[in-house]
Amino acid sequence: MKLKNNFMEKILKLIFCIGVCEVVGIGGALFTSPAISSGWYASLEKPWLSPPSWLFSPVWIVLYILMGIALYLVWSYKSLVILFFVHLLFNGLWSIIFFGLKSPAYAFLDIVILWILILVMAFKFFKVRKTAGYLLLPYLLWVSFAAILNYYLWILN
User: Fold this and answer.
1) Rounded CA separation 111/109 (Å)
2) pLDDT tens, 66-102?
3) CA 104 to each of CA 43, 49, 121: distance values in angstroms, whole numbers, following the listed order
4) How far is 59 from 145, CA to CA, in rounded Å?
């Protein structure tokens, strides 16, 4: 019976870790959707490397799942969990700044800080659980691309 309870605790913790990440994504969508439906985002001059708008949602869903699994793997390290939640704050703020406040300039500042936090987090996660560090690499690559895109949206508009 104890083995079954331990298994259920692990499953619930994993669901919580993924869920908290997905909730941040849903929160970001609350700011993104109105800016897209109002035409503000469509009115921006975009660089040639801009992907279609429909691509962002599925990419972020997968990235939030990977982030949640990484968090689960380092859950017993309090300092890493704190770092993760600090980084998650900057992740959530980006949508508020870019789409809610319609400020690509301040959003770029946020995403630079976010990128640094992800890089530090990936190195620290890798030191304690290699898999957790590897799970953050697609996220780091996507945010690198997003930072470049954000920069061009700022400069072009």
Assistant:
1) 6
2) 999 999 999 999 999 999 999 999 999 999 999 999 9
3) 13, 16, 25
4) 12
Q: What are phi and psi of 22, to 5 degrees?
A: -65, -35
Q: For the domain with range 2-156, which CATH number is right: 3.30.360.10, 1.10.560.10, 1.20.1260.100, 3.20.20.140?
A: 1.20.1260.100
Residue ranges covered by each domain of the chain: 2-156
Where residue 129 falls among pLDDT bands split at 50, 70, 90? Answer: very high
Does the CA dihedral 9-14-20-22 come out positive or negative?
A: negative
Residue type, 83: L
Q: What is the pLDDT of residues 1-33, one digit of tens each?
A: 666 779 999 999 999 999 999 999 999 999 998
DSSP character string of 125-152: HHHH-HHHHHHTHHHHHHHHHHHHHHHH
pTM of the complete model? 0.93
